[in-house]
Write a sequence for this structure.
């Protein structure tokens, strides 16, 4: 067994060059709530650990002048919960982030790590997808951006190019009349992993849905944006037929597996149920914003 | 000595182990370390069923840092043709369970073990052991294991003269069931299935063993240091007098630590290497290779008259034993009908082996399985009769003088009181909302007596040290301190209760069967009475009067009779200060094989709410009513009742072993083996009914196991009221509930 080196660079450039130079033998450490567990279990044996928590940009939550939010990749769930404004603008994203692990885990765990872990069941991801978050990544060839739903590539896999590091999420400005929500199905009430997760973001104007995004988790190899569900909602007054059509679109989008956490039939049904319940919460929030 | 004027018995005194535990200072087995200590690790079978052709350990032994390697060749062999029992365990199976001999019988079965200078080196060296297997067809579920074409695990097991996976049968008969059913006006017969569930103790198995000059010292987490000593003696060949087993503080057992896995292996590694060897299981090892309780399938048939009189009952219970015989069929078949006065009973249990880890005891072993079927069928009988389900139970409840199918004629028991208390409780008539339902069920557990030893010593400064021989897993230290303080008439804080090791206290049977307070209170009471006799003698000596003329009252010796008032009383402190000149140390020990542990009964009420779209179940309210004999320490008794209900809720709703297509446990961790967490449970209310056991000095009945007997059926019956669907299989997990709800109306 080889030894593991540990680096905690102060700048992103240093982090990227050390990470890229290790040629796949390195792992990024933010909260470590996935990485350290994998190392203890013998699943991960990195030659180099690059701790990104000392990099300013990675640790910042910024409410930009245009109303958008930028969240550094190492920002912990607890720090996001403590932010005076974020949870007011994006209550659904925050409630999803607050479902990662347990209260204790959230002191370290970050939404950035949740995304990079590549799990189709990561709780924050469907909410980020619904929010229309864009991620910034940086690698040896510079910076680029992509929609969050384009980031995961399959269970445990991402579309980061070799040497690239997740830098931040940017969530767009919220028009008046907007609301978001996240619900997941778990057999217990906490300390569990999503059997299905559903994030919804809506904008309502004069009783009509003018914008909608739906993210679904744990029902396919990656978290998905369900565009057909959004289409069913946009232009409607969220009447039962529109919501039923959106639920049907969610069920149709499901490509789940039978495993120890749920059956194909169960996950598919539940995706539709959660869509309806999540829309109801998001719409209620939109009416108050 | 035992009434409501008691000062300490019946008080929830501060538990002596509490501060240590909540501040992290309590020493569990894995906290023990020694100079020169090395680490043991186990190589486990990758196959659920395979013949072991050869094991080559040469490369591993040559690996730098490896100090010892053991295989089945180092373990004492118990030939298959002769049973050697230690408690409920047969050493033929134990020697094969701790280290696979002829065959690997389940995925995770120990094949060899290595001790090395670090856990890392030991883990590396395990990979160097070469094992040649002949992989065999395997079978996981008991229902498959009894099919005619099932792979046979053990050639030596025969049933009806043919090789079989049915390893044993147990039958209880009372009256004539055929005649009884012929007389019945309502008959309900149903079949049930339960999944195997693990005890879920938070502390994984751990031990440290040192062997010096041929004498072994074992520090381990178990439910019985004397069980550990005897098992290790049998399995390693060391005489019991050369083994000292020291019990660590225990992080949960629930029956699962009435058996050994690591101790004899660590002993053999320590003996070979000459170094102290520590072994600590991972959670994954616990889930793959230690004993859950049985899964089961069963059929229960009950017949009643129109007035609700039950005239016949029949139950057949098939229980998974795991890879080696020994499932708790006695608990299932014996406890199933025990709460009822039924003239005609036939109860039948079958012990079925299959390629999964050997079962171990779990809180009232087998009884929840028996009660599940019976109490669900009773609910249907009550419905058919148009009777309240508790009224049906009350009408047929066993009482003093009832002859039970499993043998005894009951003395004074408190089953009826539990039903009456449940019927009168506000919970039973509280309103329910949509998708909500209320269920009830009852349960019985045998309870146990057996061997216990105690020593009660008065210290030179006039305080008290009590030593007993059983690990405290449910409040025995606090309860014994209450009893001792009461008997001696002194403050509770002046009594220290310790758990002796095998070298410092006489033989005591393990902590199990809800026996510990029953038995240890008896030996502590008799020891304390002897001490009081000595104290009176010492006072008489000081006063130069006849010992018969001294009484012990409220912690003091007083002259009585003709001498009354002649001398000022002598306190325990004053007598202790003069112990040397009045005859030497003051103290007494008693060792007994106790009898008279009468059965315990409980009735539970449970309210659930079902989410009809997701199939999730929320337990809204839960109240347990139990005949607890005498609640020596009420907070601990309530804790036992709440703990049993919580475990029952997990068993009923979400816990199960999931096997993959390769015959491996697919959920060997708490993330996917879903025990309830705090937020899954409502406040679990406990109503204690104190109907003293007439055969015990304090009226104690075992209280620890009955609480897990009624919940499975109580929750199932509540589910029926909430959904109008009968559930006949556990767990009632969300996918299964939703599937059932979507079936066409029955």
């Amino acid at each position: 067994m080889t030894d593991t080196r540990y680096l905690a660079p102060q700048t992103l450039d240093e982090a990227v060059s050390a990470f890229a130079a290790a040629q796949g033998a390195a792992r990024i450490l933010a909260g470590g709530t996935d990485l350290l567990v994998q190392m203890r279990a013998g699943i991960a044996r990195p030659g180099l650990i690059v701790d990104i928590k000392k990099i300013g940009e990675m640790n910042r939550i910024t409410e930009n002048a245009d109303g958008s939010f930028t969240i550094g990749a190492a920002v912990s769930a607890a720090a996001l919960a403590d932010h005076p404004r974020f949870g007011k603008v994006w209550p659904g994203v925050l409630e999803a982030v607050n479902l990662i692990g347990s209260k204790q885990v959230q002191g370290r765990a970050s939404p950035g790590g949740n995304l990079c872990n590549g799990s189709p069941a990561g709780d924050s991801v469907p909410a980020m997808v619904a929010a229309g978050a864009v991620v910034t990544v940086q690698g040896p060839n510079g910076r680029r951006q992509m929609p969050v739903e384009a980031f995961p590539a399959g269970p445990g896999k991402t579309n980061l190019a070799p040497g690239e590091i997740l830098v931040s999420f940017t969530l767009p400005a919220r028009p008046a009349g907007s609301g978001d929500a996240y619900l997941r199905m778990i057999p217990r009430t906490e300390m569990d992993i999503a059997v299905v997760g559903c994030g919804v973001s809506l904008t309502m104007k004069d009783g009509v849905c003018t914008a909608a995004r739906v993210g679904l988790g744990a029902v396919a190899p990656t978290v998905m944006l369900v565009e057909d569900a959004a289409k069913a909602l946009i232009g409607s007054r969220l009447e039962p037929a529109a919501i039923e059509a959106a639920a049907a679109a969610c069920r149709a989008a499901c490509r789940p597996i039978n495993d120890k956490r749920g059956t194909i039939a169960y996950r598919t049904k539940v995706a539709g149920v959660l869509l309806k319940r999540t829309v109801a919460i998001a719409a209620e929030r939109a009416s108050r914003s | 000595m035992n009434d409501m004027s008691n000062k300490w018995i019946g008080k929830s005194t501060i538990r002596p182990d509490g501060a240590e535990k909540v501040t992290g200072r309590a020493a569990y087995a894995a906290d023990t370390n020694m100079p020169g200590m090395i680490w043991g690790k186990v190589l486990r079978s990758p196959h659920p069923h395979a013949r072991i052709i050869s094991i080559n350990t040469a490369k591993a032994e040559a690996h730098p840092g490896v100090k010892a390697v053991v295989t089945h060749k180092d373990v004492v062999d118990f030939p298959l043709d002769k049973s050697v029992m230690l408690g409920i365990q047969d050493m033929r199976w134990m020697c094969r369970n701790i280290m696979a001999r002829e065959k690997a019988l389940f995925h995770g079965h120990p094949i060899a073990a290595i001790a090395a200078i670090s856990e890392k080196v030991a883990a590396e060296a395990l990979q160097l052991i070469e094992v040649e297997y002949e992989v065999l067809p395997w079978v996981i579920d008991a229902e498959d294991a009894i099919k005619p074409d099932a792979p046979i695990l053990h050639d030596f097991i025969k049933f009806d003269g043919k090789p079989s996976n049915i390893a044993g049968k147990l039958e209880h008969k009372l009256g004539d069931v055929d005649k009884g059913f012929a007389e019945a006006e309502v008959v309900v017969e149903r079949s049930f299935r339960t999944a195997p569930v693990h005890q879920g103790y938070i502390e994984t198995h751990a031990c440290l063993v040192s062997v010096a000059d041929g004498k072994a010292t074992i520090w381990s987490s178990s439910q019985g240091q004397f069980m550990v000593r005897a098992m290790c003696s049998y399995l390693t060949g060391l005489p019991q007098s050369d083994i000292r087993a020291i019990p660590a503080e225990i992080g949960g057992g629930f029956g699962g630590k009435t058996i050994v896995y690591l101790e004899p292996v660590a002993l053999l590694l320590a003996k070979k290497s000459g170094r102290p060897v520590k072994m600590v299981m991972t959670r994954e090892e616990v889930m793959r290779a230690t004993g859950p309780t049985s899964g089961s399938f069963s059929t229960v048939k009950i017949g009643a008259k129109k007035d609700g009189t039950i005239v016949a009952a029949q139950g057949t219970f098939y229980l998974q034993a795991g890879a080696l015989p020994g499932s708790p069929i006695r608990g299932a078949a014996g406890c199933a009908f025990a709460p009822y006065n039924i003239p005609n009973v036939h109860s039948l249990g079958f012990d079925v082996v299959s390629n999964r880890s050997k079962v171990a005891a779990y809180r009232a072993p087998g009884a929840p399985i028996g009660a599940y079927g019976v109490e669900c069928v009773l609910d249907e009988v009550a419905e058919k009769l148009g009777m309240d389900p508790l009224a049906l139970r009350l009408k047929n409840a066993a009482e003093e003088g009832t002859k039970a199918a499993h043998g005894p004629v009951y003395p004074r028991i408190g089953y009826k009181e539990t039903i009456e208390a449940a019927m009168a409780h506000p919970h039973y008539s509280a309103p329910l909302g949509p998708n909500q339902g209320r269920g009830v069920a009852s349960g019985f557990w045998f309870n146990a007596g057996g061997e216990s030893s105690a020593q009660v010593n008065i210290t030179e400064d006039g305080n008290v040290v009590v030593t007993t021989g059983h690990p405290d897993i449910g409040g025995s230290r606090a309860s014994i301190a209450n009893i001792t303080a009461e008997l001696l008439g002194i403050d509770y804080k002046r009594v220290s209760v310790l758990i002796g090791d095998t070298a410092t206290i006489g033989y005591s049977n393990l902590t199990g069967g809800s026996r510990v307070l029953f038995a240890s209170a008896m030996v502590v009471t008799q020891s304390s009475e002897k001490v009081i006799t000595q104290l009176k003698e010492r006072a008489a000596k000081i006063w130069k009067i006849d010992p018969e003329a001294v009484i012990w009252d409220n912690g003091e010796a007083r002259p009585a009779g003709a001498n009354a008032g002649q001398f000022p009383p002598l306190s325990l402190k004053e007598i202790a200060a003069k112990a040397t000149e009045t005859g030497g140390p003051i103290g007494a020990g008693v060792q007994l094989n106790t009898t008279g542990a009468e059965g315990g009964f409980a009735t539970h009420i449970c309210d659930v709410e079902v989410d009809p779209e997701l199939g999730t179940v929320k337990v809204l309210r839960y109240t347990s009513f139990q005949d607890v004999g005498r609640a020596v320490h009420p907070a601990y008794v309530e804790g036992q009742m709440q703990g049993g209900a919580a475990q029952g809720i997990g068993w009923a709703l979400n816990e199960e072993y999931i096997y993959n297509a390769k015959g491996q446990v697919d959920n060997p961790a708490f993330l996917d083996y879903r025990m309830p967490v705090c937020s899954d449970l409502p406040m679990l209310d406990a109503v204690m009914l104190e109907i003293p056991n007439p055969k015990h000095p304090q009226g104690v009945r075992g209280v620890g196991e009955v609480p897990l007997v009624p919940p499975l059926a109580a929750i199932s019956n509540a589910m029926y009221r909430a959904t109008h669907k009968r559930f006949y299989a556990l767990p009632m997990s969300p996918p299964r509930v939703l599937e059932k709800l979507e079936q066409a109306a029955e």
About this structure: The first helix of chain B runs from residue 18 to 22.
